[in-house]
Amino acid sequence: MDLALILSTLDATLRLSTPLLLACLAGLYSERAGVFDIGLEGKMLAAAFGAAAVAAVTGNVWLGLLAGIGVSVTTAALQGAAAITLKGNQLIAGVAINMLAAGLTTFLGIQWFAQGGRTPQLTPGGRFQNLTLPFANELSGIPILGPIYADLISGHNLLVYIAFLAVPITWFVLYRTRFGLRLRAVGENPKAVDTAGISVTRLRYQAVLITGLLCGLAGAFFSIAQGSGFGNNMTAGKGFIALAALIFAKWKPVPAMLTCLLFGFLDALQIRLQNTDILGVQIPVQAIQALPYVLTVVLLAGFIGKAVGPKAGGVPYTKER
Amino acid sequence: MSALRPLPRWADILLLPIINLVLAFVISGLVVLAIGQNPLAALEAIVGGAFGSGYNFGYTLYYSTNFIFTGLAVAVAAHAGLFNIGGNGQAYIAGLGVILVALPLQFLPWWITFPIAILAGAAVGGFWAFIPGWLQAKRGSHVVITTIMFNFIAAAIMVYMVVNVLKPAGVLAPESAMIDPAGRMPKLGTFIPWFKNTDVNFTLLLALLCLVGVYVLIWHTRFGYTMRALGHNPTATTYAGISNSRTIMIVMTLSGALAGMVAVNQIVGVQYRLVLDYVADAGFVGIAVALMGRNHPIGILFAALLFGALYQGGNELQYVIPGLSKEMVVVIQALVILFTGAMEGMFRPGLQRAFMLLSPAQKAEAEARNTAKSES
Fold first, then answer.
1. How far, in Å, CA of A209 to CA of A72, rounded?
2. What is the ipTM of this complex?
3. Given an 8 Å threshold on Cβ–Cβ distance, is B334 in contact with A99?
4. Nearest-CA distance from B190 to chain A in Å?
């Protein structure tokens, strides 16, 4: 493989990792606070639709992004109401959210835009354009480092940079702020947090809303950054890969980024390897597609390390009377 | 709050699900209204599409057949305290077992192939749920996450098998070879002309048998008692000297085997070949069916009929009212899952209070208890 090919594969890796990373960090906040979230997929899908619909009508990418985040946060609030206030089953709430998003986005899409569920093609003002970082052109002449900077690091859309910036921010929030300490505590031992006079409900809602915000960014990435419009089920199970990545990363931000990069790389590789032989053997693309799931199952089973989630995860908190 | 008493049984199994269902319909109706369509006309189109003629009803029963299987799969696991979210994957991969016996046996009469296909589907579907069960029992990984992952792994395997192994040379569409017409199972319409040539077939009878079988298993066998005990209190079963891991593995296998029957319905009964994505999310509908049916076979029967009718009616909807698509049914289904499964807390306390006010004896008792508490 020559440098250009490697760079373009890594470039694709960054792009494909972005929505995974955003969704994975989204899930991290909620699950660290003790609310299991298998509805990442649904929130992303809803956000992708909301963002594309508003961006298509207004032609403004920022309004689109705002709408995507708004839809996702609203959905998260609904899920939060079920899981926190009503003390419902968090897993079932997630299933319902996924289904609701799949049904509503298609249903409304067909009705509003009459294009079989797709939203109209976005104008350039309606989607995030690729940014050229400063000096990218000037430095591209430098051997090896130049192309890496100009082709790999520069030239992505804003949401890619936001996703990777969110990693140190999440790390800082989680491990260096009072909010983060409480958030982690509420996922491990909500009673202790409650005894300290801090509202478990309030903390969990805050976490779930941050989850909504990040899922909104992830969804918007699909429809108004990477793509140029919404298509039926366009998140295509990425929310579940993000969930797998979250478990694989043992609910920690930096490993989450590395896992998402790995899964994104597998995805890029899978696209590149379509119908090509390696040393005369054709690797089925399906095997690479299934690899993130297989790896997660193997990890969960404790064959390579051990993934143990937040202790209070999945259990609604009830104050003792 | 603590003075609330449990609901009467009939309210718990009938009234509460119906309130939730009505609410799901009302909200979906509001969505339809919001986009400028008439929700009552939509409901009429769905009901007509589901029950309007023998043809429509035949398709309703065909969908219900699948939903009985997946609903039972979820319910059996739920009784043991397990949430099998992998019905889709189990039903999908079971198709591999079914087609691999159905094709070699295609020249035999269907009534020989049918039971063998059932066993093959049950074996493969059961195996696909056994692994997550085994992983939970022995390795401590949560069955929900594992079954989600197994849905995707199953999908990848099936695409590979259909495209690279089962697809006959020279066929463009990604599907296996057809079962020979001589070995195909006749549809019910052959015997009951009212159904015309709809997809409802003998697998419906298998579904009804499974309903009875699951009822007997859960409430009239020693193992059923064991699994319910596990669902209520795993510590107690351990204390009683029962192996929880063994129960978990058997229950998951049974659950997967039931989900696998969808493959029998689709391949032996309807398509006569293996196609991609034939499960069409029936596994997820099963979650709604089991929740609505309160994990009881009779409830599941009615819930499966309801969702069968919704799916068939939803298919017809788009032809009656242009612009309204069948995805409306998915919305209704999602709301049913949300209200019955995750937002139960919304109505139960209110309903319990209402019942207390309705019955004077209970009201007096509750008041007595409240005063006793405030005095102490």
1. 9
2. 0.89
3. yes
4. 35
Query: Could you give the CA distance from residue B111 to residue A220 in angstroms, rounded to a whole number?
Result: 53
Return the residue of A nearest to B2 by Cα. Answer: A321
Nearest to B152 among A38, A103, A240 (CB): A240
Contact: A86, B330; criterion CB under 8 Å: no
Cβ within 8 Å, pair A107-B346 = no
Cβ contacts of B6-11, under 8 Å, gap ≥ 24: B6/B352, B7/B348, B7/B351, B7/B352, B7/B355, B8/B355, B11/B351, B11/B355
Q: Is residue A311 part of a domain?
A: no
| Domain that includes residue B275, residue range | 38-322
Q: How far apart are CA B223 and CA B79, in angstroms?
A: 12
Assess if residue B362 is contained within a domain: no
The number of CA neighbours under 13 Å toward the Cβ of A198 is 18
> Helices B203-220 and B222-232: crossing angle, nearest 10°?
70
Q: What is the CATH number for A27? A: 1.10.3470
A157 is a domain residue:
yes
- Quote the pLDDT of residue B1: 44
Residue with tokens 């022995």: B138
Read off the pLDDT band of B50 (50, 70, 90). very high
Given A87, A99, A286, which is nearest B159 (Cβ)? A286
B327–A104 C-beta distance less than 8 A: yes
CB contact under 8 A, B149 and A90: no
Distance to chain A for B81, nearest Cα, Å = 12
The answer to whether position B12 is within a domain reads no
In a domain, B21, yes or no: no
The total domain count for chain B is 1
Predicted local confidence at residue A273, as pLDDT: 75
**Chains A–B, number of C-beta pairs less than 8 Å apart:** 147
Contacts of residue A108 in chain B, CB cutoff 8 Å? 31, 35
Specify if A37 maps to a domain.
yes
CA distance, residue A235 to nearest chain B CA (Å): 14
Helix (H, G, I), strand (E, B) or coil at A281: strand
User: Cβ–Cβ of A302/B140 closer than 8 Å?
Assistant: yes
**The pTM is what?**
0.89
Count of structural domains within chain A: 1
Task: Give the number of residues written for chain B.
Answer: 376
Q: List alpha helices for A177-307, DSSP H.
A: 178-188, 190-195, 200-220, 238-248, 253-272, 285-300
Would you list the DSSP string of B190-210?
A: GT-GGGTT-S-BTHHHHHHHH
Range of the domain at A288: 3-300
- 3-state SS assignment for residue B42: helix
Per residue in A144-192, pLDDT (tens digit) is 777 778 778 888 899 999 999 999 999 999 999 999 999 999 999 999 9
Q: Considering CB atoms only, which of B139, B325, B335 is closest to A302? A: B139
Could you read off the pLDDT of B36-47 as tens digits, one per residue?
889 999 999 999
Please check whether residue B203 lies inside any domain of the structure: yes
Considering only CB atoms, which chain B residues are within 8 Å of A114? 323
What is the CATH number for B287?
Answer: 1.10.3470
Q: Widest CA span of chain A, in angstroms? A: 70
Report yes or no on A19 lying in a domain: yes
